[in-house]
Amino acid sequence: MCAHGRKKTGTFAWGTDLPPIVTSETYLTTKLYGEFTPMTADDLVDFMRRHEELLIVADTMDDDVEVYKRLAECYPDVMDRFIVQIYHEREYDPIRALGFTSVIYTLYNADEQELEIANLMRFVNGHELVGLTFLPERLEGKRFRIGVEKLGVPLMVHTIDDYEEMETYLAKRNFTAVYTDCTTFPDGAA
Questions:
Q1: Domain residue spans of the chain
Q2: Cβ distance 61 to 33 under 8 Å?
């Protein structure tokens, strides 16, 4: 499991009690959720090379262009298997210029101007995207909900950890994907 940051509370995400600043050695020897082994980028890419069908949705959170630049320089053979997330319109062109072709526009850090439906429509129509991702709370605004459904781009929601709620988004709301932290599902669930 790769990890990208801390929850707003200051405690490390993924079920650990690590302090705000830790050494790489401490991080890499701490089991996430008490069972998962942390990975470095080298570990992840080695795993990807052994599992050629694997695609990774990359969620860098900060310094996106710089992180993707380093990925492109260090691992050019697997670049096409990263689906990268951008958080602002201005990140699209520099990331595409690096050679990444699969981009998700993730809206939780977008400013109010970027979230205006007319601006989203303009951006979606002028850029090739895998889809839009946003928090479920965004759907509470009727104007936003109706507007994004008309964009003609796959919609994804995060983070949904309840299986029945996942099914609702996928079946009734016609979302393409649901981000989750769940590692197990009910018996018989696909």
A1: 17-104, 107-190
A2: no
How much is the pTM? 0.85
Note the pLDDT tens digit of each residue in 159-170.
Answer: 898 988 998 888
Nearest residue to 157 (alpha-carbon basis) of 168, 143, 142: 168
In whole angstroms, what is the distance from residue 102 CA to residue 51 CA? Answer: 19
Give the Cα separation of 51 and 34 in Å (integer): 25
Report the Cα 25 to chain-centroid distance in Å. Answer: 26
**Per-residue three-class SS string for 1-53:** CCCCCECCCCCECCCCCCCCCCCHHHHHCCCECCCECCCCHHHHHHHHHHCCC
Residue 18: Cβ within 10 Å count: 16
Q: How many CB atoms lie within 10 A of CB 103?
A: 20
pLDDT digits 0-9 by tens, 104-117? 999 988 999 999 99
Walk across the sheet containing 102-106 and list its strands.
56-58, 82-86, 102-106, 131-134, 155-157, 177-178
Angle, CA of 31, 104 and 3, to the nearest 5°:
10
Query: Is the bond leading into 26 cis (omega within 30 degrees of zero)?
Result: no
Backbone angles phi, psi at 142, to 5 degrees: -60, -40
Alpha-carbon 141 to chain mean position: 22
Which own/partner contact pairs does 136-142 have at CB distance under 8 Å and 24+ positions apart? 136/160, 136/169, 138/107, 139/173
